[in-house]
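Work Package 4 report. The design task specified in the project plan requires that, given a folded chain encoded as structure tokens, an amino acid be chosen for each position. We show below one input record used in the internal validation round.
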């Protein structure tokens, strides 16, 4: 069976591309051409029956991802599913199940079944629990059995750290970092290679991985095992060497008709962000860029949804296509439901701010509507147009003004009210 990319190259606009184009108010043929070129993707596993297809890439609305999943210390499946429902309610675009403890298949299947949003996973996180083996004892066929299971379960995209090769590991050793390898999947593969004296199986047997992706129409998210975990480590030799390799792997995937996106840096100073986006786009031939932040400072635990939103807005305005949310709990604990809400809203603000800067069609219309409501001093309409109407309404209700047509900040001195009375 042909893949989305192969159909697009053959001039066929699939139902998934048609549906994604409609949500972007875009000519389906224009999106089809971008999918054919690899500069846009429509992740849509054939087994994800509840999916409402969406596109990620050049010229499209910046998308956001929400991470959920159980861990050894926090195993509340119902809470994680509630986070998924919140992500759907707050208009996120994707959910990644990062579960790393126990038998996760039932949870993953329930998530796929309930979610109209695209679903991502990192099979490497699931390997130890799924296989019931110590990491060092996992064999190559075992790894691929986990990947096949995730694909069969309906996952739309999978993060696989194919660029963490033995050569990349040696570069990390020769160029010491403050925070070493902070990618969970990358560090697991690093440890497996060290324990077994073997090459990364996902690199060594890359064509086998591509065959699995093509069979179920899974988009490959090439993970950045050497992403910087501190601003000190940004844009260093290991990160750039891995990125060069990811560019080569992107073109190999395209040759097999597999859609690809590239994951990007985690921590990075503001002045390096635009250059990193340009470098990724150039080295990876314009493949969509999925950034994990970037967090623009390391000193704000408890507020990293803000440090991430700053970096995400800059990255997306420079051409990044997909933002991974970060919550106030980053680096500290598994997020609560309220942490998840805060992270989603921060990421959506960053994405929308970037869409205005990129000139995404229709992005400014929302802001113009809000400005007209403010000029009319129409608080009901302002609240309805707010990105988070619930919070806006709560703030308004918490401090009622003496005059309904004002707020308690300016009262009767409200400039909007005054100018409306003068100018109409």
């Amino acid at each position: 069976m042909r893949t989305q990319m192969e159909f697009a190259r053959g001039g066929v606009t699939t139902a998934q591309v048609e549906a994604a184009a409609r949500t972007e108010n875009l000519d389906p043929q224009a999106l089809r051409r971008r999918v054919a070129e690899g500069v846009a993707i429509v992740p849509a596993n054939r087994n994800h029956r509840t999916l409402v297809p969406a596109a990620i890439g050049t010229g499209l609305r910046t998308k956001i991802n929400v991470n959920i999943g159980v861990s050894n210390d926090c195993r509340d499946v119902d809470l994680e599913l509630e986070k998924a429902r919140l992500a759907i309610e707050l208009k996120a675009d994707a959910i990644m199940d990062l579960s790393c403890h126990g038998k996760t298949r039932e949870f993953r299947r329930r998530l796929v079944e309930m979610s109209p949003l695209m679903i991502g996973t990192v099979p490497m996180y699931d390997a130890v629990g799924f296989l019931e083996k110590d990491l060092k004892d996992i064999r190559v066929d075992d790894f691929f059995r986990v990947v096949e299971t995730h694909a069969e379960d309906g996952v739309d995209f999978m993060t696989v750290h194919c660029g963490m090769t033995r050569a990349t590991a040696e570069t990390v050793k020769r160029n010491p970092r403050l925070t070493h390898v902070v990618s969970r999947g990358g560090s697991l593969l690093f440890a497996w290679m060290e324990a077994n004296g073997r090459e990364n199986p996902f690199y060594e047997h890359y064509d086998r991985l591509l065959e699995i992706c093509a069979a179920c129409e899974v988009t490959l998210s090439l993970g950045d095992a050497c992403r910087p975990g501190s601003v000190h480590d940004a844009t260093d030799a290991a990160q750039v060497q891995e990125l060069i390799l990811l560019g080569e792997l992107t073109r190999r995937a395209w040759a097999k008709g597999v859609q690809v996106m590239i994951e990007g840096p985690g921590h990075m100073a503001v002045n390096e962000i635009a250059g990193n986006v340009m470098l990724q786009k150039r080295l990876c031939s314009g493949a969509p860029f999925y950034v994990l932040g970037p967090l623009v400072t390391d000193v704000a635990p408890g507020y990293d949804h803000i440090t991430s939103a700053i970096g995400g807005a800059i990255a997306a305005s420079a051409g990044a296509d997909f933002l991974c949310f970060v919550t106030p709990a980053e680096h500290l604990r598994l997020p609560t439901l309220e942490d998840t809400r805060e992270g989603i809203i921060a990421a959506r603000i960053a994405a929308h701010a970037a869409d205005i800067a990129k000139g995404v069609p229709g992005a400014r219309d929302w802001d113009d509507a809000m400005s007209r409501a403010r000029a009319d001093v129409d608080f009901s309409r302002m609240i309805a147009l707010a990105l988070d109407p619930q919070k806006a309404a709560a703030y308004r209700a918490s401090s009622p003004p003496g005059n309904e047509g004002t707020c308690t900040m300016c009262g009767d001195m409200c400039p909007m009210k005054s100018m409306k009375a003068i100018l109409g």
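The domain at 4-358 is CATH 3.20.20.540 (TIM Barrel). Validation will be extended to a larger panel in the next phase.
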